[in-house]
Amino acid sequence: MRRFVFAAIVCTLIALPLAAQNTDIESLSGLQFNFGNPGARSLGMGGAFLGLADDASAAEANPAGLTILRKPEITLEGRNYQEQQVFTTSGTFPDLQRTAFTHYSQRIDATFASVVYPFKHFTIGAYYHEPLRNEGTGQVVPVRNEFTGEVKTDVPNFFLPVDANGNATGGPISSAQCQALRQKDPFSCLEYTVLPFLSAVKIQERTLGVAAAFQIGKFSFGATARQQRFNETAFTFRVTPQFDFSSISVQATSDIRKNTDVAKDESDITFAGGFKWAPNDKFSIGGVYKQGAKFAAPTFVASEQTNFEYVKAFDTTFHMPDVYGAGVSFRPIPVLTINADAVRVKYSNLTDNFVSINAVVRNIDKAYTADDALEIHLGGEYFFSTKIPFALRAGAWRDPQHTLRYSGPLTSSAAVGAAVLFPKTKALTHYSVGAGVAWPRFQIDAAYDRSELFKVASISMVTRF
C-alpha cells in the first residue's frame, strides 16, 4: 500500500491566517544565504576586513573604518555569481540523494556603490549595496527512460510501522524491516512517497545606507542607518504521481491574489554600528553589529479545495539574520597585511515564531531550526612596490551549515516527510584570490571566491579626489 505525503497538506491551510515569521515552503529548502562584505578587495582576502576596514566599502562592512580616509572617494563594484540550491531528489530515508540546481546571475550586477567625504576627525558617506540575490528553479520528479517511460529514479520515500488505524507506531525503518513486518501483518507497515514538485525562487535584497564615523585618539566609532528593500517570490507547484495538479504554495512580497506579474518591494529601516582601535600603523582591531531587517512576505495556497483560487494561509515575515563580529589586522612588514575575522550570523532569526504549512508539524515545538553560524575568515594582502603598485591577495573562510532543517521527532508521516525535504546540510569552505593595481587617484581590484556551491567574481573601482 502506498500513500503520498508532503510538507504541505492543502486541506490544513484553509483556515484563518496566522501570524508567523517564516514558513517551510519547499522552494526555500536547501537555499543558502551569504552576507559577505562588499568590495573585490575584501572578497580576495576571504572576506576578512573588519579589523582593517580602510576603504570606502567600510561604510557597510565596518563604518568606523571610514575615519582612515583622507580624500573623498567614489567606489563602484560589480559581481557575477553562480550558486546552487540543493533538493532531496531520491533515495529512502535516511539514505537520501540530493541534487544541486544551479542559479545564475544574468549579468555583472552593480552590487555596491558609495560616496565618502572625510573631514578632520569626522567622515560621512552614502552607499548602495545588494547583499542578496538568488534566482533559479529546481524539481523533485521521477526520472524516466526517455524511450520506454519506465521510472529509473523515483522520488524520495520512507517506511513507517503503523497500527490498525494507520497511525505511526515508531520512527522510519528500512525496506527490509518493513517487509518483515508485512509477513506477519500486511497492513503493519506502509510506504510513503513525497509528491513530485516543481520549484522556483527569486529573492533580492537591496540597501540604501548613510554612514558617519568619528575619531577620538586611537579609537574610531561609526554608525549606519539603512533602508533595506526586499523582493521575494518562492513558488512550489505540486502534482500527483500521475502528474495531475495537486496544489500550489507561494510565499511572496505581493498579494498574488491580485494577479500582478511583478512582486512589490517590502522595506525596513535598520541600523549598524562599529568600532576600530588602531594603536599604531601595524595593528588594528575592529568590531561591528548589523541589525537584520524584517519583511512582510505572506504565504498563499491554491488547490481544488479553494476552487483553484489563491487563499492567504499565513501572514508570514522574512526576518533576515542579525550579524555581529570582530576582526584583527596585523602588518608585520610595510608591504604585507594579514587579517582574521570571526563573524556570528544569527540564522536562527529565520525561524523566529516559525509556522509550518502542515498542521501536524505545526503543533511540534521548534520543529524547524536554522543554526547560528560562526564564520572564520582569514586573508592577506601583499603589495609590490613597483612603478605602478599592485597587490596580490588570498584568503579562505568557513561557512558552517545553516540551512533551514527539520529537527523535530519522527513520529508521523508528515514529520518524516519534512525531514526528507529539509535535512541537515554540510558546511562549506571558501577559497579566494584577488589582485589590484593602484594609482594616486584611481584603483581597480578583482577577486574570485569559490566553494562547492558558490562561485563569485567581483571587480571594483575607486576614484579619489
Identify the notable features of this structure and list them briefly.
14-stranded antiparallel barrel, 5 helices, disordered N terminus, three-stranded mixed sheet, mainly beta, 465 residues, Porin
Task: Characterise this structure.
This protein has one domain: Beta Barrel (Porin). The longest helix is centred in the middle third of the chain and has 10 residues, at 175-184. It has helices spanning 40-44, 58-61, 175-184, 359-362, 413-421, and strands at 2-5, 18-19, 73-92, 95-104, 109-118, 122-140, 143-144, 151-153, 157-161, 189-194, 197-216, 219-239, 245-252, 266-280, 283-290, 294-296, 299-303, 311-315, 317-319, 323-333, 336-345, 368-369, 373-384, 390-399, 405-406, 428-438, 442-450, 454-464. With 465 residues, the protein is mainly β. Residues 1-20 have low confidence and may be disordered.
The gist of it:
This protein is mostly beta strands. It is built from 5 helices and 28 strands. The chain is elongated, with a radius of gyration of 25 Å.
How is the biggest beta sheet arranged? 14 strands, antiparallel, barrel
In total, the number of domains comes to: 1
Strands, total number: 28
The H-level CATH homologous superfamily, spelled out, is Outer membrane protein transport protein (OMPP1/FadL/TodX)
Strand percentage: over 45%
Q: Kindly, what is the distance between the CA atoms of the first and last residues, rounded to a whole number of angstroms?
A: 75 Å
| Backbone shape | elongated
- Radius of gyration over C-alpha positions, nearest whole angstrom: 25 Å
Class from secondary-structure proportions: mainly beta
Supply the number of helical segments: 5
Oligomer: single chain
- The percentage helix is under 10%
CATH architecture: Beta Barrel
Instruction: Give the low-confidence spans.
Output: 1-20
What order do the strands of the largest sheet run in, or round the barrel if closed?
3-5-6-11-12-14-15-20-21-23-24-26-27-28
CATH topology: Porin
Average pLDDT, to the nearest integer? 88
CATH class: Mainly Beta
